[in-house]
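Hi everyone,

Forwarding the result from last night's run.
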Amino acid sequence: MPISILRGILICEYILGGLPHLTSWPLTSLHTKIHRKSQLTAPHLHPVFPFCQQNQIKWHMFYVGALMLLEALLLTLPQTRQSLATLFMNAFLTGAGWWSQMKAGLPYWLPITNFFLGSLIFMMGM
């Protein structure tokens, strides 16, 4: 499978995951689902996002969504798509997602999948 297809899949996942964190438009049902999920995961992410209080779900969603969209942008730009910063951002987001979802008792297969997908993209581009 060409690297551009793998990168496109990961970019779409970060956009489809990040945008509903920031706004309910145009994916209202996904925004609602993410809000409910964030109520369970935010307390476990407080050490990772210390600037966001545990009960501030809106800000938690904002920071996570902004980082997800930033990762999508880093994967899109030719100058940064194979950089260590992009790899580390992917590892940070997927590690935080895995940890918080595991601690909340939620399925955590997607962060693990995204971690391996991001790592594979980085290694294939070397």
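Residues 18 and 65 are 4 Å apart (CA to CA).

Cheers,
N.
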